[in-house]
Amino acid sequence: MLMDTHAGRDAGTSGIFAALEKARERGFVGRARELAAFADTVDGVSEARVFFIHGPGGIGKTTLLDALARRAARRGRYCLRLDARDLVCSGAAVAAAIDERRRTAGNPPPGGEVLFIDGYELLEPLDRWFREELLPARPAGAVAVIASRNAPSMRWRTDPGWRGLLKVFELDAFGPGNSMELLARLGVEPASRRILAGLGRGYPLVLAMLADAGPPAGRPERLADMPDLVSQLCRMIVDDIPDAEHRTALATCAQATRMTEELLRRTVGARAAEAWDWLRARPYVSSGRTGLFLHDVVCELFEAEFLQRSPDDYVDLHRVIRDYFLEQLADPGRPDADRAAAELMLLHRRGPLSDEIAVLRRAGLPRIERAAYREHERILELIEQGEGIDVAQLARQWIEAQPEGLYRVRSDEGVEGFSVQVYLPEPTGIGLRDPVAAAIARTVAERAPLRDGERININRFAGASGAYQRDPTQLLVNGVACILEWFSQPAAWSFIVTFDPEHYGLYFEYLGFSPLVRVRYGGREQVAYGWDRRRFPPQSFFELMESRELSGQIGPPPADLLKPEPLARGAFLEAVRSALANYRSPDRLAGSPLLDTQLVQPFSRQPVESLRRTLRAGVRAASADRRGAESGRVLERTYLKGAPSQEAAAELLGLPFGTCNRRWSAWARCCGRWRSAPAGSGSFPGWSPRLRRKKPRTGTMDRNWTESDLAAGRLGTG
Fold first, then answer.
1. Coil, strand or helix at 78
2. From the CB of residue 4, how many other CB atoms can be counted at a distance below 10 Å?
3. Which of 231, 376, 627, 631 would you call most buried, defined as having the most Cβ atoms within 10 angstroms of its Cβ?
4. Alpha-carbon Rg for the chain in angstroms
5. 227-254 burial by CB neighbour count: b if 16+ within 10 A, else e?
6. pLDDT: is 541 or 626 the higher one?
């Protein structure tokens, strides 16, 4: 588009043009900072001569240029406007367009001219020519306003001459006030403004198109509920995707809270570096300390369009991304497991607390770590402020007894939020003095009692420095702490306690928890939501979340995700004997009931092979222990090396059959202790005469043994 305006021209003071300008002015809101700076330049107060305005498509650059042109014309300036979409990208074409417009206007005096260039990103190959030839040749009083999706090149900022003559403005989304005012000026009824303002997220183009679409039907909760509008907006805002791999890269950036190049390699493969550079150059993509992210309305628009266009591809990509973060969480060598946990939690964008999740996604990924001793007092102050002195005194006892369960998130101002994870049984008696913990213990005893060595995990206290339990920060630190504990610490039951079930109840039920305990304490009702992890282990929980993150479904876990009741001791030992007999036949092991027990590592992609590794480790551990060496030789000869029977193995080893049978029984007694760990925990309570006689330290948990402990020979044979 080529357009010029001059004060005093008939077209500018009467007729349809004047009516259009008045309507446009009525529909313009905000941008006070940019208007004031421009007015200073036009009035001769400021030395700035070039204004560089940048931001993503739909953020209001063109509308702002219109408003600036109107103000310049009212001050007697001649305004000449170029739209890069109408120009060939060459210096000669740009210069010819400027000369043509001047001739058409009757060659007005150039000294007061204001040149507006829209869509400058299309002219970026000419950036040096603009900077070194066209703009320096303009008269001293001339002004130029450039609008681009991209920020100015570094040469604009580093040139000592331009540094004093250039002003750069990055346009942000509107706040709630400007959004509501724009909708009002566009004629939206008061009853609909708040809904549409929430959907538009401050994007002027989105707000304008929502207003044009008329009153929202059926109270849409997100842009995805308006598919036709989503398609139009995507074509206008995200219109520069070169191919399928770059589309996948953009979709990855939309789903992850902060996308790294490492994650991009998982989703687009060998072209990850190319796609990363392309994304970093997009005006609707920002770069943060922990990765790339999209403006939230662009994120929602593109996700909705991608789901509408390719629902199967959307689900597949979602699975790849969450599997990536689950693998990070399971890697003991990674120092940033809390970030992986946060990414997993922030995938819950269709659940009951989706608004809070959106706030947290915009805020990024702060570190969530175990609290240092010096931070304890501040956390106790927050508990006292939020729940009273009696609750704070109880929390102090828990924190002193189990400090490893205290997590926090902090800013430069100090601790911003916390979560206290505790375990029962514990040796100090706090569990009996805490009415909520005592009620949880009674409920577990009535429903599904603990077996030897089993524990109950309780997310006992949580809050934040703002609105305490209503603060989104509390949701983040609590969610991350729970995921880290569920992933790394074995427990038979897990509970989350809240005094605000009205706000959190549906969310916990969305997670598959049930309200099992209600206790009046601290002046209000405390509700504990729980789940039996022996029936519904963490790997099943994350499998359920994979579908609920996409559906938002609420309710108890489906029956097909529940594990069978824990095996009785006799059945467990028989299953171990059968599994050893079928050790060399993986197809037969596929039907073993041990696949639903702790002998299989959680999240294993090959559960049969994981079971074989565990059995092999146990047998070889027995061989390495001087007290069980003979047992190990018998078992290894019989099962791992494939003797036809125990009798044959005894003959090959030169041992009486009765001796071999006694050695099997001794090893089986040790195996019986494996069953006391919760199903799917990946941990194995060890046993040896030396360990059994040790008295545990006050405030510590019983030690849990892993497969590596078995392999290293640290498991006694009995």
1. coil
2. 23
3. 631
4. 33
5. eebbeebbeebbeebeeebbbbbbbbbb
6. 541
Of 571, 578, 568, the closest CA to residue 676 belongs to 568
- Determine the Cα–Cα distance for residues 454 and 492; give it in Å rounded to an integer: 6
Cβ 85 vs Cβ 122: under 8 Å: yes
Q: Which amino acid is at 106?
A: G
CA pair distance 68, 210, nearest whole angstrom: 25
Strand order in the sheet with 368-370: 368-370, 406-411, 414-424, 456-464, 493-498, 524-532, 514-521
In Å, the largest CA–CA distance within the chain is 117
The 3-class SS string of 127-152 reads HHHHHHHHCCCCCCCCEEEEEECCCC
Tell me the residue type at 199.
L
Q: Is the pLDDT of residue 295 over 50?
A: yes
3-state secondary structure of 38: helix
Neighbouring CB atoms inside 10 A of 139's CB total: 10
Phi-psi label, residue 364: left if phi above 0, alpha if psi -120 to 50, beta otherwise: left
* Residue 386 identity (one-letter amino acid): G
pLDDT reading at 302 higher than 90: no
Q: Residue 165 — left, alpha, or beta (φ > 0 → left; ψ -120 to 50 → alpha)?
A: alpha
pTM of the model: 0.71
Q: Are 67 and 35 in contact (CB under 8 A)?
A: yes
* Residue 304 structure tokens: 């909705």
